[in-house]
Amino acid sequence: MEDLSLWIYIAMFGVAFVAGFVDAIAGGGGLITIPMLMAVGLPPHVALATNKFQALWGTAMASWHFARSGLLDFRSVFIPSLWVFVCSGLGSLAVLSISPEYLRAVIPFLLIAIFLYVLFSRGVGQSDRDAKLKPFIFYFIFGAAIGFYDGFLGPGTGSFWTFALVAILGLEMKKAVAQTKVLNLASNVFSFIVFAFSGNILWLLGITMAIAQIIGARLGAAMVVKKEVHFVKKVFLIAVFASICKLIYDLVK
């Protein structure tokens, strides 16, 4: 399966660059890369596995840049990340015996609620606010719920994390985006391990896309650091809206 045409490697390099850039700012990179991987002829399980491998590198680069820029303190999210890792593993195991179709139908409506809340809530994410839950309780509840969901199904995970960190924990939007990257990274690692042992990753294509992801994520993370919060909020809303459209299209086609 690795004997793909040169044009596929070139095209997917460009796709991964764009996905890494967008994902570092607002999430949703997988909604760009997975359809394109399947469009060039990869079976769904191979597309998902290869996508998980290449996306890890973009998320790791964005996390590293956010930490260097002062938006992220790894020590504050280390324990929550371990909890998310465990819960995502439980989700991955559960999906083997439970159909995700019921949950798939609900996700677009949850994203619509997030979109409307962020769009119409004045000042949301503009600056740090008082948390509605203590951090330990917040990470215990949302780490379990979102981590499990990411291992179980996945679409919209970044949006759910950013929304929860802004609306419940009271973080400013840019800090929320930075923490989202680390928490996403933690939940994705388990899936990558599963896919790596399954033998479904196309390593050469994955490495090609990973290089592009690193470049795109580096530029996207730099954009988050340099731009004002309202820019990040606009990109977040666009990404959530695009996710809603894509997921609804998948349901009705």
List the helices and strands and how they pair.
Layout: H1 6-26, H2 30-39, H3 44-68, H4 74-94, H5 101-120, H6 135-152, H7 157-167, H8 173-198, H9 203-226, H10 229-252
Helix pairs in contact: 1-2, 1-3, 1-9, 2-3, 3-8, 3-9, 4-6, 4-8, 5-10, 6-7, 6-8, 7-8
Q: For the residues shown, what is the average pLDDT?
A: 82
Q: Compute the separation of the termini in Å.
A: 28 Å
**Integer tally of domains:** 1
Q: How many individual helices?
A: 10
Order of helices and strands: HHHHHHHHHH
The proportion of residues in beta strands is under 5%
Q: Roughly what percent helix?
A: over 70%
Structural class of the helices, strands and pairings? mainly alpha
Question: Any idea what the shape is?
Answer: globular
Radius of gyration: 17 Å
**Total number of strands:** 0
Please tell me about this protein's structure.
The chain is mostly helical and 253 residues long. It has one domain. It is built from 10 helices and no strands. It has helices at residues 6-26, 30-39, 44-68, 74-94, 101-120, 135-152, 157-167, 173-198, 203-226, 229-252. Helix 1 crosses helix 3 (44-68). It is globular and about 55 Å long. It is a multi-pass membrane protein. This is Probable membrane transporter protein. The chain crosses the membrane at residues 6-32, 77-99, 105-124, 136-154, 189-215, 235-252. It comes from Campylobacter magnus. It is found in: Cell membrane.
